[in-house]
Amino acid sequence: MTDQLLGFIGLGNMGGPMAVNLAAAGNPLICYDASGTAERAPEGAIHAAGSAEVAAKAAIVFLCLPDGPIANQVAGELMAAPDSIVEVVVDATTSGSAEARATHDMLAKAGIAYADAPVSGGASGARAGTLAMMVAAPDALFARLQPLLPPMAKNARHVGRRPGQGMAMKLLNNFLSGMAMAATSEAMAFGAAQGLDMATIIDTISVSSGKNTAITDKFPNRILPERYDSGFATRLMTKDLRLYVDSCKELNAPHNLSETLLRQVWGRMFEAMPDSDFTEVYPFTLDKDS
Ligand code: NAD
């Protein structure tokens, strides 16, 4: 907790509840969201008219924006604001490592520190404050930020010291998560074709070696009840997997599975329904021409 005003820009499915938890822990906030701050900001927070007003009033600014190019643009606005007092930008957006490095390098020219700090745990984790946060920052910067993180991210981890390493951790996580979602859907279809009951599959695999978050959360809580309310959009899953595959190619790292997953499942779903919740993927795993 701090007495100093903290900035928070991007109050969507993730940033909205993260800001609520930060404020509920007693941190004074100044917030901004391009789609409407008043409807999204936590109670008691100052509503800024734009990024420049946040920059003029907050030394530490959190970003939780749709993608890397937007985060880079907003970081640029914070830097260029005429009366900016920004010292640190903490970027909880999922960008690629290259985008994070570019934002870091741009801000460094103005003496502003940058930590990439993407999150995992979905909108429900954001509401509960149980997110994992994957922070890449020099030791001293992490030590400065660490006391602020627990209300938003019970599971904050200092994963590296170089800019972009937090994003790398997040992208590999989302490859695993996207694979688990698609593979579990295919396995469910197999089970159903064998006459197995879906609830029984979930109950059994939840205590077996095939256990994953699609089995323990997405299928029982969001897919079987037909709620499809994870709060994670298909366009975001596809963006993350594309960033992962592109990074693998740049590094000459193996990407057979991730590229197939992108082409056969998430890319096709993105073409058909980009704004859907990613838990609606089931039909796209059944038949590659469906
Ligand atoms: P979202 O689309 O719900 O929220 C993004 C918010 O940013 C929106 O409210 C939008 O109005 C605002 N915004 C866009 N451009 C802006 C600008 N120039 N200035 C100010 N505000 C602007 O997205 P989300 O689901 O909250 O995801 C945010 C980030 O977190 C993404 O990078 C996503 O990949 C990542 N993420 C999402 C989830 C999830 O389950 N939704 C989980 C982990 C990580």
CATH topology of the largest domain: Rossmann fold
* H/E series: EHEEHEHEHEEHEHEHHHHHH
In total, how many beta strands?
9
General form = globular
Query: How many distinct folded domains?
Result: 2
SS field, number of helical segments: 12
Q: What's the Cα radius of gyration?
A: 20 Å
Give a description of the structure.
By secondary structure, the chain is an alpha/beta fold. The chain has two domains: 6-162, 3-Layer(aba) Sandwich (Rossmann fold), CATH 3.40.50.720; 168-286, Orthogonal Bundle (N-(1-d-carboxylethyl)-l-norvaline Dehydrogenase, domain 2), CATH 1.10.1040.10. The chain is built from twelve helices and nine strands. Strands 3-2-1-4-5-6 form a six-stranded parallel sheet, sandwiched between helices. Strands 7-8-9 form a three-stranded mixed sheet. The protein is globular. The relative contact order is 0.10. The mean pLDDT is 96. The structure holds nicotinamide-adenine-dinucleotide. The site of nicotinamide-adenine-dinucleotide (NAD) has 27 residues, from α3, β7, α5 and α10.
